[in-house]
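S1.2 Input.
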Amino acid sequence: MGLLAALLIGTLMVCPWCVYAYSLDPAAAAYWLDLFMPRDWTDMTQLGRQAGHRAGYTLAVMLPWTIWLLAAVMQPFSTSSAGTRLRLLLGWLWFLAAVLLVILSPWSERISDQILALPAAAVLVGQLFSQYAELASEGRYARLWRWLRWPQLALLLVMSVVLPVALMAQPELVVEGWLPRVIAAAPPWYAVAAAIAVLLAIWGISAQLAMRHYPARAVAVWALWTLLLSTALAWPLATGPVARSDIPAEAQAVRARVGHAGLFWVATDDQPEPDPALLLYLGRPIPPVQSDQLPDIAAELRDLYLLTPRRMTPAPPGSEPVRELAAPLDAMLWRLGDR
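S1.3 Output.
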């Protein structure tokens, strides 16, 4: 009943907002319907490829719980779930809705959209282990628990050693073609050795619990293992090259070059406005203008700079290139007139 109560409470929290939005704009209901139940299902081949990629991302993000997510999808229909199917189906239906609305929906374009499916997946896995714990208290052990605890232990054992070592060996992995580039700061060897020792110790405890059929205690230790591994990986990733952005340095270079002169963004159909991150670090507005407005603006301002998308052709008339802004900005800085 806990999940059902949470569902009702969540619905009651959302309803006032929906009623208020509908009172301001009656067309909001049609927009919501198109958003959650899109009508553009024509290109099923493209949609199938996208769904495959999104499902792969979701399963990868769920590591090391991926195999249990697959088991949780089947658990409500197993013979060991007799008498508890309704409770299990609440989480199962939530996950099914997340799959339909996010993974299989044509409007979902960003990888970050898949995060919406993770809470439902986590509840589904949690329900699975709650069921395993109840069965174990009665001396019964689900078939999937008996089978999947071994690949789970093998996966954790491999990850306990491979991931810390891979962090330290990133340059070699790049040379061998396993990585496109270095993505995290390399930790010292003693930190890697300590991480492996701690992770293996926790793995040993979980292995004893799993072999003795204590699913609730085993999953608690696995959760501790996941927390420690995530913490150990967070610092190298947060301080590595991937986490460093070139946008602040590019904004500083533009600010130093332009000074107090006029600065405008030449709008295109693909990029009608500049990147919001550039505006944030630049600390000044960049008004968007159309190409046909440039002669009038140039007649009013003696010193004038333009930002355009890098792929924009032809170049603004009477301009000379000043700087090419690095990705992810992908823009060009031009100068019109004399300083």
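S1.4 Remarks. The chain has a mean pLDDT of 78.
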